[in-house]
Amino acid sequence: MPEAEQNEEHKSYPVEFSEYFDSIIRKLKKKDASLALRVLEAIKEVCKNPEHYKPLRNVMKNKRRKHIGHFVLVFSFENGVVRMENFAHHDDAY
């Protein structure tokens, strides 16, 4: 594989956390450490290719989602930065 293509595969965009998301993750680490670990792994995956995930519509325009089991990770991607917005059960996320 050419070196340029290989570097592109490992490129990762910078990530920011909203205050709300940060508080959710802190609580989740105490309540369910294994799910918190899955969320952190999903964040790494999202940062590699954020445009791969489904864009949301209507009031959640400019946001995208990634499912983690019955939960949804909601994030935005603007100006080359991934911003984590929310993590909630599917029934409550929208």
What does this structure look like?
The chain has 94 residues and is of the alpha+beta class. It has one domain: YaeB-like fold. Helix content is 43%, strand content 28%. It is built from 4 helices and 4 strands, in the order H-E-H-H-E-E-E-H. Strand 3 and strand 4 (81-89) form a beta hairpin. The longest helix is centred in the middle third of the chain and has 16 residues, at 33-48. The protein is globular, with a radius of gyration of 14 Å. The chain starts with a helix and ends with a helix.
Q: What's the overall average pLDDT, rounded?
A: 89
Q: For this structure, what is the CATH homologous superfamily?
A: RelE-like
Helical element count? 4
Strand arrangement within the widest β-sheet reads: 1-4-3-2
- Share of residues in strands: 25-35%
Query: Main beta sheet, described?
Result: 4 strands, mixed
Number of domains: 1
- Total strands: 4
